[in-house]
Amino acid sequence: MKNLLLLLSLYSFTQNTVIAQVQTHTPVAKEIPTELTKHNHIRIDPYFWMNQRDSKPVLDYIAEENTYSNAFFEQKKPLINTFLAEFENRINPEETSAPIEIQGNTYQWRQIKDKDYKQLILIEKGKESIYFDENERAKGTEYYSLGDLSISPNNQLVAFSEDKIGRRNYTILFRDNQSDKILKDELKKTDGSVIWANDNKTVFYVKKDPTTLREYQVYKHILGTSQSKDELVFEEKDERFTVYISKTLDKSFILIHTESSTTSEISLIKSDNPSEKALCFLKREQDHLYEIDHHETGFFVLSNKNSPNRKLVFTESIPTSIESCKTLIAHDSETYLEGLEVFSTFLALQSRKMGRTEISIGNIDATNFSVISMPEEVYELGFSYNENYFAKKINYYYASFTSPSSIYQYDLASKNSQLVFQKKLIDPKFHSEDYISKRIWAIANDGEKIPVSIVYKKGTDLSKAPLLLYGYGSYGVTIPTTFSATRISLLDRGFVYAIAHIRGGKFLGENWYQDGKLNHKRNTFTDFINAAEWLAMAGYCDPNAIYAQGGSAGGLLMGAVTNMAPHLFKGIIAQVPFVDVVSTMLDESIPLTVGEYEEWGNPNIEADYWYMLSYSPYDHIRKINYPAMLITTGYHDSQVQYWEPLKWVAKLRKNNLGNQPILFDCTMTAGHGGGSGRTTERLEVAKEFAFLCHIQGINE
Questions:
Q1: What is the arithmetic mean of pLDDT over 196-224?
Q2: DSSP states of 251-269
Q3: pLDDT value of residue 24
């Protein structure tokens, strides 16, 4: 609590000081028209200059915007403090994760009272000791992110990666667990992941391109040597592809994955022989995505070859083709196979059918499956941490809109599940049964049914209730319907919260994703608009109090729907929004650009250019009444550069004919995921809630 109160005190002091010294006014950005020509089409961008990172004009303008938004939130400080106090009184300050088993030892992540970061606790014979303390590692930094923490097979060493800027460039370090000393080995400019070979001295890691930040090289490092001596094991030269690494559950192979949005390839290195060359499992074939796991009898493969929702096949050795493998589970047009875990004596599959998740446990030959599911409409099931290949039980998580997450353990012998861990709130006034969740189906313009998950408090007068509608709809990502302890503060004030599972995600399978990308992208936006309209028409909210929220590609969604249906939304929260679609996708020096061609299109191709331009939020701002808008970003964002939302705000302000606030809040010490640490994270949420309540006229 001390840390939280200290931050609030500092927040209050700094805001009052700024306001006392600076006359707050609506920022007006200078215009330097820049002509952008492509396919004989000319666009004039008056704010193109904002991409000059670290220049004085850019930093001065960001400071001006932050001063303006700070003045707004200073006025809402009592409400912000109220939200923070509610979070503090609801969430256990020493909240823990479920215990996890790693190589015979038991660990548990634990939040520490008055501290921003977590500790990893080692539990041995009933005694607890601090194994890793993020708080100690974060000392003296304004931002801290632990990327990976990987314990050597003999438990004597631990490798861990850290980002202290927010750019997702991680440095890997090593610690001797007996002496507790950090070794001299230091691996810089990595993606953060680290995989041990079985010899306890060799690790594999992924390096990023220094300009585009694309993960493209896999290196092998031997402890005690300089990084400059590390051996390049794999390099992906096709800029559409990114690389990541993993290890099979049976610890037999280190896997090098290289994949684009549409195509993948996996290479293998035996964990017992890290000096051998990587061997390709199946060569890449356009539009073939696959993943593998290993068993002592062979390889299990999830493949989308002629199977959009994926099928499960088996091969005793590295196959000549996917067709040469034996089909164990055939393609099902209604069921998407999300994941696979292979154990010594059984298989576990995670699937989704009509949006509902299931876990199936079966024999190693993929027979006699038992299905784990829940009777509710709105919930999530998924694999929890399962590290023991020889286990006779499997851990899985259960979550819903109304209940904190739980971990269950399924016993193969009894075929029963047992609750082994559940997060609990410390607020005695909270009861899950006081809230209602359900799934409804909105109708899209083209007749498709759009699943929407909603939650609200019992007794809420829905006809007068404000609605916060969340959406994403890109990359095939499914937004899970999970519990939020902070969201309760909105529900208790009469809000309805909803997630629109729009096209572009895989909530309804692969075809649902394909129908919301490339030249079908506009379906994502119209689905969201139709979902909002349907909720109002069906009586689930006040039609005049609809708010929308989305981040990153979901920020693109926010920009698009704001242009397409500004009358529909009373307020918008756009987090790290991707809004300058055409200009960004024409700049191949920007992180992610080339690799994103298979998601959005390539504007160097004229047909793609015109289609992308048809919805690019920045290019379609016009003189209208825009709703109230809160736009947030991190200056070090590696995924969506800070200047996209900065330019967007400047252009919105110039063209807005209304009088609702348009706020830009840039955290100078953060990246794509926002600020780090519990205190900062909660403050960001409290400010978003205060913004919504201000627009809605709720002052307490």
A1: 96
A2: S-EEEEEEE-SS-EEEEEE
A3: 65
Question: Domains in the chain, please, with CATH?
Answer: 95-136 (no CATH), 141-288 (2.130.10.120), 297-424 (2.130.10.120), 435-696 (3.40.50.1820)
Query: Given a cut of 50, is residue 4 above it in pLDDT?
Result: no
Q: For the chain, give the number of residues.
A: 700
Q: Are 242 and 215 in contact (CB under 8 A)?
A: yes
Residue 501 annotated to the active site: no
Residue type, 446: D
Tell me the residue type at 258: T
- Cα within 13 Å of Cα(399), Cβ side: 17
Q: What percent of the chain has pLDDT over 90?
A: 89
C-alpha torsion 620→626→628→634, nearest 10: 20
672 is a catalytic site residue: yes
- Taking the C-alpha atoms of 4, 10, 11 and 16 in order, what is their torsion angle to the nearest 10 degrees? 150
Q: pLDDT tens digit string along 609-666?
A: 999 999 999 999 999 999 999 999 999 888 888 999 999 999 999 999 999 999 999 9
Instruction: Give the count of alpha carbons within 13 A of 14, CB side only.
Output: 10
Task: Report strand pairing: 170-176 vs 546-551.
Answer: unpaired
The one catalytic residue among 161, 552, 638, 676: 552
Is 163 tagged catalytic? no
How many Å apart are CA 242 and CA 575, to the nearest integer? 25
DSSP helix, strand, coil percent of the chain (3-state; round to 5): 25, 35, 40
Burial 543-581 (b: 16+ CB within 10 A, else e): eebbbbbbbbbbbbbbbbbbbbbbebbbbbbbbbbbbbb
Active-site annotation holder among 221, 672, 676, 694 = 672
Rounded CA-CA distance 5/13 in Å is 12
Listed residue (527, 595, 592) closest to 557, CA to CA: 527
The two tokens of residue 411 are 């016993």
Q: Which amino acid is at 277?
A: K
| Location of structure tokens 């062979």 | 298
CB atoms within 10 A of CB 661: 17
| Nearest-angstrom CA–CA distance, 342 and 350 | 12
Residues 128-174 pLDDT 10s: 999 999 999 999 999 999 999 999 999 999 999 999 988 889 999 99
Per-residue DSSP letter, 278: P
Calpha distance 87→93 (Å, rounded): 10
Cα diameter, the chain: 74
In sequence order, which residues have a C-beta less than 8 Å from that of residue 2 and are 6 or more positions away?
A: 114
pLDDT at res. 9: 37
**Residue 143: CB partners within 8 Å, gap ≥ 6?**
163, 164, 165, 166, 636, 669, 670, 671, 675, 676
CA 264 to CA 240: how far, in whole Å? Answer: 11
Candidates 391, 396, 304, 317; CA nearest to 349 is 396
The one catalytic residue in 637, 638, 665, 694 is 637
| CA-based nearest residue to 185, from 172, 198, 169, 196 | 172
- What is the distance between the alpha carbons of residues 592 and 581, in angstroms, rounded to a whole number? 12
